[in-house]
Amino acid sequence: LFKSLTILSFDGNQFIGTLPSELGLLTSLTSLSVAENLFSGTLPSELSLLASLTYLSVSSNQFAGTIPTELGLLTSLTQLRVYDNGFTGTLPSQLGLLKSLWGIGVDYNQFTGTLLSELGFLTSLSHLTVNDNQFTGTVPSELGNLTSLTYLDISKNQFTGTFPSQMKRYLELSELSLSNNNFVGTLPSWIGDLKDMTSLRLNHNNFNGTLPPELGNLISLTSLGISHNEFSGTFPAWIGSLENLSWLWLEDNQFTGSFPSEVQQNLDLKHICLFNNNFTSLPEGIENYSPYFCS
Protein backbone atom coordinates (compact mmCIF):
# COMPACT_ATOMS: atom_id res chain seq x y z
CA LEU A 1 0.00 0.00 0.00
CA PHE A 2 2.81 2.43 0.87
CA LYS A 3 5.53 1.15 -1.44
CA SER A 4 5.58 4.45 -3.34
CA LEU A 5 6.02 6.48 -0.14
CA THR A 6 9.11 8.71 -0.26
CA ILE A 7 8.96 10.60 3.06
CA LEU A 8 7.93 9.11 6.41
CA SER A 9 8.10 10.97 9.72
CA PHE A 10 6.83 9.92 13.14
CA ASP A 11 8.64 12.75 14.94
CA GLY A 12 7.48 14.07 18.28
CA ASN A 13 4.96 11.45 19.34
CA GLN A 14 4.88 8.84 22.10
CA PHE A 15 5.30 5.66 20.10
CA ILE A 16 6.72 2.75 22.09
CA GLY A 17 8.10 -0.67 21.33
CA THR A 18 10.57 -1.70 18.69
CA LEU A 19 10.94 -0.34 15.19
CA PRO A 20 9.24 -2.80 12.80
CA SER A 21 11.54 -4.59 10.38
CA GLU A 22 8.82 -4.23 7.74
CA LEU A 23 9.99 -0.64 7.24
CA GLY A 24 12.58 -2.22 4.99
CA LEU A 25 9.81 -2.94 2.47
CA LEU A 26 9.26 0.79 1.81
CA THR A 27 12.03 0.83 -0.77
CA SER A 28 11.03 4.20 -2.29
CA LEU A 29 11.74 6.08 0.94
CA THR A 30 14.22 8.92 0.71
CA SER A 31 13.61 10.28 4.21
CA LEU A 32 12.82 8.37 7.41
CA SER A 33 12.59 10.07 10.79
CA VAL A 34 11.27 8.59 14.03
CA ALA A 35 12.88 11.15 16.33
CA GLU A 36 11.53 12.14 19.75
CA ASN A 37 9.50 9.09 20.61
CA LEU A 38 9.87 6.21 23.08
CA PHE A 39 11.06 3.53 20.68
CA SER A 40 13.36 0.92 22.24
CA GLY A 41 15.26 -2.22 21.31
CA THR A 42 17.82 -2.43 18.54
CA LEU A 43 17.73 -0.91 15.07
CA PRO A 44 16.46 -3.44 12.51
CA SER A 45 19.11 -4.39 9.95
CA GLU A 46 16.34 -4.31 7.34
CA LEU A 47 16.72 -0.54 7.21
CA SER A 48 19.66 -1.29 4.92
CA LEU A 49 17.15 -2.25 2.21
CA LEU A 50 16.15 1.41 1.85
CA ALA A 51 18.72 2.07 -0.87
CA SER A 52 17.23 5.45 -1.84
CA LEU A 53 17.37 6.85 1.68
CA THR A 54 19.15 10.21 1.99
CA TYR A 55 17.99 11.17 5.51
CA LEU A 56 17.74 8.87 8.54
CA SER A 57 17.00 10.06 12.06
CA VAL A 58 16.27 7.84 15.06
CA SER A 59 17.39 10.47 17.57
CA SER A 60 15.91 11.06 21.02
CA ASN A 61 14.49 7.62 21.68
CA GLN A 62 15.50 4.70 23.88
CA PHE A 63 17.26 2.54 21.33
CA ALA A 64 20.05 0.29 22.60
CA GLY A 65 22.62 -2.16 21.30
CA THR A 66 25.08 -1.55 18.50
CA ILE A 67 24.65 0.23 15.18
CA PRO A 68 23.96 -2.42 12.49
CA THR A 69 26.89 -2.88 10.12
CA GLU A 70 24.35 -3.15 7.31
CA LEU A 71 23.76 0.60 7.46
CA GLY A 72 26.95 0.85 5.43
CA LEU A 73 24.82 -0.17 2.43
CA LEU A 74 22.89 3.12 2.54
CA THR A 75 25.33 4.87 0.25
CA SER A 76 22.86 7.63 -0.69
CA LEU A 77 22.63 8.92 2.90
CA THR A 78 23.52 12.57 3.40
CA GLN A 79 22.44 12.83 7.04
CA LEU A 80 22.56 10.22 9.81
CA ARG A 81 21.23 11.13 13.24
CA VAL A 82 21.29 8.57 16.03
CA TYR A 83 21.97 10.93 18.93
CA ASP A 84 20.33 10.85 22.37
CA ASN A 85 19.76 7.12 22.73
CA GLY A 86 21.44 4.25 24.59
CA PHE A 87 23.57 2.83 21.79
CA THR A 88 26.69 0.98 22.90
CA GLY A 89 29.78 -0.65 21.44
CA THR A 90 32.04 0.77 18.77
CA LEU A 91 30.99 2.56 15.62
CA PRO A 92 30.96 0.10 12.69
CA SER A 93 33.74 0.62 10.17
CA GLN A 94 31.10 0.32 7.42
CA LEU A 95 30.07 3.92 8.17
CA GLY A 96 33.15 4.86 6.17
CA LEU A 97 31.31 3.68 3.04
CA LEU A 98 28.70 6.44 3.32
CA LYS A 99 30.66 8.93 1.27
CA SER A 100 27.68 11.17 0.52
CA LEU A 101 27.25 12.06 4.20
CA TRP A 102 27.62 15.69 5.16
CA GLY A 103 26.17 15.35 8.67
CA ILE A 104 26.60 12.71 11.39
CA GLY A 105 25.28 12.96 14.94
CA VAL A 106 26.10 10.09 17.30
CA ASP A 107 26.25 12.24 20.45
CA TYR A 108 24.62 11.43 23.78
CA ASN A 109 25.00 7.68 23.66
CA GLN A 110 27.32 5.16 25.30
CA PHE A 111 29.69 4.40 22.42
CA THR A 112 33.13 3.14 23.44
CA GLY A 113 36.51 2.43 21.91
CA THR A 114 38.57 4.68 19.71
CA LEU A 115 37.01 7.06 17.23
CA LEU A 116 36.49 5.43 13.87
CA SER A 117 39.43 6.15 11.53
CA GLU A 118 37.20 5.30 8.55
CA LEU A 119 35.34 8.56 9.17
CA GLY A 120 38.26 10.07 7.32
CA PHE A 121 36.80 8.71 4.08
CA LEU A 122 33.76 10.97 4.46
CA THR A 123 35.30 14.00 2.85
CA SER A 124 31.92 15.74 2.33
CA LEU A 125 31.29 15.96 6.08
CA SER A 126 30.57 19.44 7.35
CA HIS A 127 28.93 18.54 10.67
CA LEU A 128 30.24 15.88 13.07
CA THR A 129 29.10 15.45 16.67
CA VAL A 130 30.38 12.57 18.82
CA ASN A 131 30.16 14.34 22.18
CA ASP A 132 28.84 12.79 25.41
CA ASN A 133 30.03 9.24 24.81
CA GLN A 134 32.88 7.13 26.17
CA PHE A 135 35.36 7.30 23.30
CA THR A 136 39.02 6.87 24.26
CA GLY A 137 42.47 7.22 22.73
CA THR A 138 43.77 9.87 20.39
CA VAL A 139 41.87 11.49 17.54
CA PRO A 140 42.69 9.48 14.38
CA SER A 141 45.05 11.20 11.96
CA GLU A 142 42.71 10.20 9.11
CA LEU A 143 40.23 12.81 10.29
CA GLY A 144 42.58 15.37 8.77
CA ASN A 145 40.88 14.55 5.46
CA LEU A 146 37.65 16.20 6.64
CA THR A 147 38.57 19.60 5.26
CA SER A 148 34.93 20.62 4.73
CA LEU A 149 34.06 20.51 8.43
CA THR A 150 32.33 23.59 9.78
CA TYR A 151 31.11 22.12 13.09
CA LEU A 152 32.97 19.58 15.24
CA ASP A 153 32.07 18.55 18.79
CA ILE A 154 34.04 15.75 20.47
CA SER A 155 33.51 17.00 24.02
CA LYS A 156 32.72 14.90 27.09
CA ASN A 157 34.64 11.79 26.14
CA GLN A 158 37.99 10.40 27.27
CA PHE A 159 40.21 11.48 24.38
CA THR A 160 43.92 11.85 25.12
CA GLY A 161 47.00 13.33 23.48
CA THR A 162 47.92 16.84 22.44
CA PHE A 163 45.81 19.28 20.44
CA PRO A 164 45.06 17.21 17.30
CA SER A 165 47.45 18.45 14.60
CA GLN A 166 45.17 17.22 11.80
CA MET A 167 42.77 20.01 12.68
CA LYS A 168 45.11 22.55 11.10
CA ARG A 169 43.43 21.56 7.82
CA TYR A 170 39.96 22.56 9.04
CA LEU A 171 40.09 26.03 7.47
CA GLU A 172 36.28 26.24 7.17
CA LEU A 173 35.64 25.33 10.80
CA SER A 174 33.22 27.63 12.62
CA GLU A 175 32.64 25.82 15.92
CA LEU A 176 35.01 23.47 17.74
CA SER A 177 34.60 21.84 21.14
CA LEU A 178 37.25 19.62 22.72
CA SER A 179 35.93 20.22 26.25
CA ASN A 180 35.85 17.62 29.03
CA ASN A 181 38.53 15.27 27.75
CA ASN A 182 42.11 14.49 28.76
CA PHE A 183 44.05 16.56 26.22
CA VAL A 184 47.46 17.87 27.30
CA GLY A 185 50.20 20.21 26.09
CA THR A 186 50.23 23.71 24.68
CA LEU A 187 47.98 25.26 22.07
CA PRO A 188 49.53 25.25 18.57
CA SER A 189 50.31 28.52 16.82
CA TRP A 190 48.47 27.34 13.69
CA ILE A 191 45.17 27.68 15.54
CA GLY A 192 45.27 31.28 14.37
CA ASP A 193 44.80 30.04 10.78
CA LEU A 194 41.25 28.86 11.52
CA LYS A 195 39.88 32.31 10.83
CA ASP A 196 36.23 31.31 10.38
CA MET A 197 36.05 30.16 14.01
CA THR A 198 33.20 31.68 16.02
CA SER A 199 33.24 29.32 19.02
CA LEU A 200 36.23 27.59 20.61
CA ARG A 201 35.65 25.43 23.69
CA LEU A 202 38.65 23.78 25.36
CA ASN A 203 37.31 23.68 28.94
CA HIS A 204 38.11 20.87 31.38
CA ASN A 205 41.30 19.44 29.91
CA ASN A 206 44.97 19.55 30.90
CA PHE A 207 46.24 22.14 28.42
CA ASN A 208 49.11 24.25 29.72
CA GLY A 209 51.54 27.02 28.85
CA THR A 210 50.72 30.51 27.64
CA LEU A 211 48.11 31.43 25.09
CA PRO A 212 49.62 31.73 21.60
CA PRO A 213 49.33 35.28 20.21
CA GLU A 214 47.97 33.79 16.99
CA LEU A 215 44.65 33.35 18.80
CA GLY A 216 44.26 37.06 18.20
CA ASN A 217 43.74 36.29 14.51
CA LEU A 218 40.36 34.69 15.23
CA ILE A 219 38.48 37.95 14.85
CA SER A 220 35.12 36.21 14.35
CA LEU A 221 35.18 34.56 17.79
CA THR A 222 32.06 35.15 19.86
CA SER A 223 32.85 32.64 22.62
CA LEU A 224 36.16 31.38 24.02
CA GLY A 225 36.24 28.73 26.72
CA ILE A 226 39.60 27.70 28.20
CA SER A 227 38.53 27.16 31.82
CA HIS A 228 39.67 24.30 34.05
CA ASN A 229 43.08 23.80 32.45
CA GLU A 230 46.65 24.69 33.45
CA PHE A 231 47.23 27.80 31.38
CA SER A 232 49.69 30.22 32.94
CA GLY A 233 51.41 33.57 32.47
CA THR A 234 49.77 36.96 32.20
CA PHE A 235 46.47 37.06 30.40
CA PRO A 236 47.14 38.74 27.02
CA ALA A 237 45.81 42.21 26.30
CA TRP A 238 45.38 41.32 22.63
CA ILE A 239 42.23 39.39 23.55
CA GLY A 240 40.71 42.87 23.61
CA SER A 241 41.07 43.03 19.81
CA LEU A 242 38.51 40.23 19.37
CA GLU A 243 35.72 42.72 18.98
CA ASN A 244 32.94 40.11 18.52
CA LEU A 245 33.77 38.22 21.72
CA SER A 246 30.88 38.14 24.19
CA TRP A 247 31.52 34.96 26.22
CA LEU A 248 34.86 34.38 27.96
CA TRP A 249 35.56 31.49 30.35
CA LEU A 250 38.99 31.57 32.05
CA GLU A 251 38.30 30.16 35.49
CA ASP A 252 40.47 27.59 37.24
CA ASN A 253 43.80 28.21 35.50
CA GLN A 254 47.09 29.73 36.65
CA PHE A 255 46.97 33.18 35.07
CA THR A 256 48.90 35.88 36.94
CA GLY A 257 49.20 39.65 37.07
CA SER A 258 46.55 42.24 36.44
CA PHE A 259 43.62 41.42 34.23
CA PRO A 260 44.17 43.65 31.17
CA SER A 261 41.96 46.71 31.07
CA GLU A 262 41.86 46.51 27.25
CA VAL A 263 39.61 43.46 27.45
CA GLN A 264 36.92 45.25 29.39
CA GLN A 265 37.31 48.55 27.52
CA ASN A 266 37.17 47.12 24.00
CA LEU A 267 34.72 44.24 24.33
CA ASP A 268 30.99 44.09 25.00
CA LEU A 269 31.23 40.99 27.17
CA LYS A 270 27.98 39.45 28.31
CA HIS A 271 29.54 36.72 30.44
CA ILE A 272 33.03 36.41 31.90
CA CYS A 273 34.39 33.90 34.42
CA LEU A 274 37.78 34.54 36.03
CA PHE A 275 37.79 32.85 39.44
CA ASN A 276 40.48 30.44 40.70
CA ASN A 277 43.43 32.12 39.01
CA ASN A 278 46.26 34.21 40.43
CA PHE A 279 45.20 37.61 39.14
CA THR A 280 46.37 40.55 41.26
CA SER A 281 43.54 42.79 40.07
CA LEU A 282 40.21 42.20 38.36
CA PRO A 283 38.08 44.35 36.03
CA GLU A 284 36.03 47.12 37.59
CA GLY A 285 32.41 46.03 37.87
CA ILE A 286 33.18 42.30 37.65
CA GLU A 287 30.49 41.77 40.27
CA ASN A 288 27.92 42.67 37.61
CA TYR A 289 28.69 39.57 35.57
CA SER A 290 26.58 36.54 36.39
CA PRO A 291 28.55 33.59 37.85
CA TYR A 292 25.82 31.17 36.85
CA PHE A 293 27.15 30.88 33.33
CA CYS A 294 30.60 29.73 34.44
CA SER A 295 31.49 26.29 33.11
Q: Tell me the distance between the termini.
A: 53 Å
Radius of gyration (Å)? 22 Å
H/E order of the elements? EEEEEEEEEEEEEEEEEEEEEEHEE
Query: Spans with pLDDT under 50 lasting ≥5 residues?
Result: none
Widest beta sheet: strand line-up: 1-3-5-7-9-11-13-15-17-19-21-23
Q: Mean of residue pLDDT?
A: 94
Helix content: under 10%
Q: Beta-strand level of the residues, as a percent range? A: 25-35%
Number of helices: 1
Biggest β-sheet, characterized?
A: 12 strands, parallel
The number of E-state strands comes to 24
Quickly give the structural class.
Answer: mainly beta
Tertiary shape: elongated
Please describe what this structure looks like.
The chain has one helix spanning 261-266, and strands spanning 7-9, 16-17, 31-33, 38-41, 55-57, 62-65, 79-81, 86-89, 103-105, 110-114, 127-129, 134-137, 151-153, 158-161, 175-177, 182-185, 199-201, 206-209, 223-225, 230-234, 247-249, 254-258, 271-273, 278-281. The chain is built from one helix and 24 strands. The strands form two sheets. It has a twelve-stranded parallel β-sheet, with no helix packed on it. A twelve-stranded parallel β-sheet has the order 2-4-6-8-10-12-14-16-18-20-22-24, with no helix packed on it. By secondary structure, it is mainly beta. Helix content is 2%, strand content 29%. The mean pLDDT is 94.
